[in-house]
Design a protein that fits this description.
The chain has about 450 residues and is an alpha/beta fold. The protein has 2 domains: about 30-205 and about 410-425, Rossmann fold (3-Layer(aba) Sandwich); about 220-405, Glycogen Phosphorylase B (Rossmann fold), CATH 3.40.50. About 45% of the residues lie in helices and about 15% in strands. It has helices spanning about 1-25, 35-40, 60-75, 90-95, 110-120, 135-145, 155-165, 165-175, 185-195, 205-210, 220-230, 245-255, 275-285, 315-320, 340-345, 360-365, 380-390, 390-405, 410-425; strands at about 50-55, 80-85, 100-105, 125-130, 150-155, 180, 200-205, 235-240, 265-270, 290, 305, 325, 345-350, 370. Strands 3-2-1-4-5-6-7 form a 7-stranded parallel beta sheet, with helices on both faces. It has a 7-stranded parallel beta sheet with strand order 10-11-9-8-12-13-14. The longest helix is centred in the N-terminal third of the chain and has 26 residues, at about 1-25.
């Protein structure tokens, strides 16, 4: 099987090579980490202490792993933690966010690369965030008697439909995992229908609730607010994790309202680094004065419109906002994490396309803590109502904060399940695939 997968991966790479080459030359993508990606030459771990290898595909999952890392360090301070990511932006954020942790590109799923990486890291446990199911990586870990766990597991309806066509393969793959800790019972049922052993499936709740910072006085938010020159009388409208077209909608709302509400300020945070310059050009064409985040320190202007062209800061910027629009929800991305602005008590809105966060979005709306906007034309009226009717905006924020507070605890439940996997290995129990684990507390 590993060799058949190698052939398949080579064929896929060959088919995609023109696009990959163009992206590498034009945008600088995929050039970094060649030795790690293709040969598994990740940093060699020294020492004999237990080691937990945490893997995240990109920025969102890298942020998510912070709560797991903190909990592990509190409970097992003598253990080592290493972090890998698939993308350049994810790895850059990991290096910035966890400067005292060994970080590296996860190897591509070629058998020789993943086996080399496992030999060099020598993990006691491999933890995959959400749904990073690479067959050769999982197989290499199992060959080395290393248990593999999925945490914060999610399986969207679209992914489920695709995987269901490969059910025999998925059943074998899923049952090579020692633990599948999922966000909710709906995801649990989908994994079970794909053939996952019920004994390995546990509902723990979403780590995103624990990862959402709710204190606007945190140091990062205070520093950014001061850097941007925000005053206490300002009302910050932030459109975050936006995709193409959503920045235009947010700018149109700002332009329609800024004359009537001179204290209104707009912050735009595009989802992808590739689009920073594109959004800047859009703002230039609009004629609206703006400042890029990267120029704040040297700018003498107090910008009414700010373009955040930095990675890994969105969580802190949400803490400056009173009115929030969560992007990726008018287009085809399926939404982005709306818990961060909710935890801060902002008046949260998003579009109708939030299938990747369906349960969280539905819970927020049901609790009266967020508003679904049917289309981009509804954004300006929503912002205007929040500006005119402060009790309305305050109530949205209060309900959102209450929902987040009521759903804390997934991190502790998850780590309760991870620790026995490592400790079983340390006591000579193999990969702990069938080890008795504590039941997760109610999510």
């Amino acid at each position: 099987m590993p060799y058949l997968l190698n052939v398949l991966y080579v064929l896929l790479l060959a088919a995609a090579s023109p696009w990959l080459l163009w992206a590498a030359v034009r945008k600088g993508k995929y050039r970094a980490g060649f030795r790690e990606k293709f040969f598994g030459l990740v940093p060699r771990r020294e020492g004999a202490e237990p080691c937990v290898w945490l893997h995240a595909v990109s920025v969102g999952e890298v942020n998510l792993l912070g709560v797991i890392m903190r909990e592990l360090r509190e409970r097992r301070p003598g253990w080592k933690v290493v972090v890998s990511s698939t993308t350049h932006t994810g790895l850059e954020l990991a290096r910035k966010k966890y400067p005292d942790v060994t970080t590296f590109y996860c190897p591509l799923d070629f058998s020789w690369a993943v086996r080399a990486a496992v030999r060099r890291v020598r993990p006691s446990l491999l933890v995959l965030a959400e749904l990073e199911l690479w067959p050769n990586l999982i197989g290499a870990a199992r060959e080395a008697q290393v248990p593999v766990a999925v945490v914060n597991g999610r399986l969207s309806e679209r992914s489920f439909r695709g995987y269901r066509r490969l059910r025999p393969f998925m059943r074998r793959l899923l049952n090579r995992l020692s633990l599948i800790a999922v966000q909710n019972d709906e995801y649990r049922d989908r994994f079970a229908e794909l053939g996952a052993d019920a004994a390995r499936l546990v509902t723990t709740g979403s780590l995103k609730f624990d990862g959402a910072v709710g204190d606007r006085r945190n140091a990062a938010t205070q520093r950014l607010a001061q850097l941007a020159g925000f005053d206490t009388d300002d009302v910050v409208f932030l459109a975050g994790s936006t995709q193409e077209g959503e920045e235009d909608a947010a700018l149109d709302a700002y332009r329609a309202l800024s004359g009537e509400f001179p204290r209104l300020r707009l912050v735009l945070v595009p989802r992808h680094v590739d689009r920073f310059d594109e959004v800047a050009r859009m703002l230039e064409r609009s004629g609206v004065p703006f400042v890029r985040r990267s120029a704040l320190a040297s700018s003498e202007r107090n910008p009414r419109v700010l373009l955040v062209d930095a990675v890994g800061e969105l969580g802190a910027w949400w803490g400056t906002a009173q009115i929030a629009f969560v992007g990726g929800s008018f287009g085809n991305r399926g939404g982005q994490n709306m818990l961060e602005p909710a935890a801060y008590g902002a008046a949260v809105s998003f579009g109708p396309n939030t299938w990747n966060f369906r349960e969280i979005a539905g819970a927020l709306v049901a609790a009266g803590g967020a508003v679904v906007l049917p289309d981009a034309d509804a954004l300006a009226p929503f912002v205007r109502r929040c500006l005119v009717d402060r009790p309305y905006a305050d109530e949205l924020g209060c309900q959102a904060r209450s929902l987040v507070a009521a759903n804390l605890g997934a991190t502790a439940r998850t780590v309760d399940l991870l620790l026995p996997l490592v400790e079983t290995v340390l006591t000579g129990g193999g990969t702990a695939a069938s080890a008795k684990r504590p039941q997760a507390r109610a999510a």
